[in-house]
Structures are given as structure tokens and as C-alpha cells.
């Protein structure tokens, strides 16, 4: 089920490995977004212009018609420093894009969120910058990401991670614990919507 939501808002997608989280993002969410920049630390995404450095990112966003960009940091570089550079570039120069951050706990750990990313999370909507944050372990990334999210998709998680997510949203999210594989919950504006398994 594609989501109908303003692309300048914040979406969190949670789920363990093999839960359907990544497949949903790649096959449903991303294809439905017109303009995006993906932080792809695991080199898993395709279908857009792949860049590895800030100069390459700058060249891509200034190229007419280049609306889908995948940032894959060079292996061996400090991912936190590189991530902060990308976030700063987005704040200064990008408007009307969605910033997609895979494995967000790796670059915005609990109580250590980079200030540049925090600015995107807290004020990006006013600048036309949306954000999708994906993670297997919600307890490990900074709580700002959770508290600022208007939309949440939850696939299967461990009991402890589900309890943690319920603290921020709704007890109904625990439905995924006993639901068929690849099922998920969509939470928005206080409403929990259960969804049947993805056709993977």
C-alpha cells in the first residue's frame, strides 16, 4: 500500500532483518518519491544517480533533471563526519527533496545525533525537506527522530523494541508481533492501521 503523505514530513520505518522493511522501502516508498537523496551506507540502492563525495553531490543536484540521488560514502571514510557534511549541504542548498537515511542508528545514535541532522529532523519541513529514517533497532537511535515523526511504519521487531516503540506511539503497534510474516502497522495522528503481508 503506497502512503499518501506530504513529502516534507517525517517518516520512520522500523523492522528486523527479513521483516519486509527494506523491501517495502525499495519497492513501494522510494519509487513513489519524485525527488530524493538516499544515504546508502550499505551500497544497496539503485535507480538513481550514485555519488560518493560532496562535490559529486553538488554536481548532481545542479544537473537538470537529476532528481533521484544515492549517496554512497567511500569505504573507509568516517561515516559520521561524511554524514554531517551531507546533512549540512542539504540544509544549505536543498529544497523540495526527501532525505532517506538507511540504518539511521549508525549515524544518529541515541543521545549523539549530529546537530546538522537534528536540524533537518526538527526544521526541515519548513524548508521543504522531508525525511525517511529506517532502522532495525529503534532503541539505538536518537529519540528526536521518534518524537518528530508524523508517520511510522512498523514491521516485526523484538519484544523489547516493540515495547520501546509503543511508549512513543500506541499499544496497537504490538499487533505485528503475532501477525503473518511481512505484515506491518501504519501509525499516524493517533490511528493504528494494520496491513496484510507484502507480496514479496
Description:
The protein is of the alpha/beta class and 200 residues long. The protein has one domain: 3-Layer(aba) Sandwich (Rossmann fold). The protein is 28% helix and 20% strand. It has 6 helices and 9 strands; from the N terminus they run βαββαβαβαβαβαββ. It has a 9-stranded mixed sheet, sandwiched between helices. α3 runs parallel beside α4. It is globular and about 45 Å long. It starts with 9 loop residues before the first strand and ends in a 5-residue tail after the last strand.
The total strand number stands at: 9
- Over the alpha carbons, how many angstroms does the gyration radius reach? 16 Å
What sequence of helices (H) and strands (E) makes up the elements? EHEEHEHEHEHEHEE
Here the CATH topology equals: Rossmann fold
Do you know the CATH architecture?
3-Layer(aba) Sandwich
Shape call: globular
Strand content: 15-25%
Q: Tell me the number of helical segments per DSSP (H or I, 4 or more residues long).
A: 6
The CATH superfamily bears the name: P-loop containing nucleotide triphosphate hydrolases
CATH uppermost class = Alpha Beta
List keywords for this structure.
200 residues, Rossmann fold, 28% helix
Write a compact overview of the structure shown.
The chain is an alpha/beta fold and 200 residues long. The chain has helices at 21-29, 54-61, 79-93, 115-123, 143-147, 159-168; strands spanning 10-14, 36-39, 49-51, 68-71, 98-101, 130-135, 151-154, 184-188, 191-195. The protein has a single domain (10-195), classed as Rossmann fold, CATH 3.40.50.300.
Amino acid at each position: 500500500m503506497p502512503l499518501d503523505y506530504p513529502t516534507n514530513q517525517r517518516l520512520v520505518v522500523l523492522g528486523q532483518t527479513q521483516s519486509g522493511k527494506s523491501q517495502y522501502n525499495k519497492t513501494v516508498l522510494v519509487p513513489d518519491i519524485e525527488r530524493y537523496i538516499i544515504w546508502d551506507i550499505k551500497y544497496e540502492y539503485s535507480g538513481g544517480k550514485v555519488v560518493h563525495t560532496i562535490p559529486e553531490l553538488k554536481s548532481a543536484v545542479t544537473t537538470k533533471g537529476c532528481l533521484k540521488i544515492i549517496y554512497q560514502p567511500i569505504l573507509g571514510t568516517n561515516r559520521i563526519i561524511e554524514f554531517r557534511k551531507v546533512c549540512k549541504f542539504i540544509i544549505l542548498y536543498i529544497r523540495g527533496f526527501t532525505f532517506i537515511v538507511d540504518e539511521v542508528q549508525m549515524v544518529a545514535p541515541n543521545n549523539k545525533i549530529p546537530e546538522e541532522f537534528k536540524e533537518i529532523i526538527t526544521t526541515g519541513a519548513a524548508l521543504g525537506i522531508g525525511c525517511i529514517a529506517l532502522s532495525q533497532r529503534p532503541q539505538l537511535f536518537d529519540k528526536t527522530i521518534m518524537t518528530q515523526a508524523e508517520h511510522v511504519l512498523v514491521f516485526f521487531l523484538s519484544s523489547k523494541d516493540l515495547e520501546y516503540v509503543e511508549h512513543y506511539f500506541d499499544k496497537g503497534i504490538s499487533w505485528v508481533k503475532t501477525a503473518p510474516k511481512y505484515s506491518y502497522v501504519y501509525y499516524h495522528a493517533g490511528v493504528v492501521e494494520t496491513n496484510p503481508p507484502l507480496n514479496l
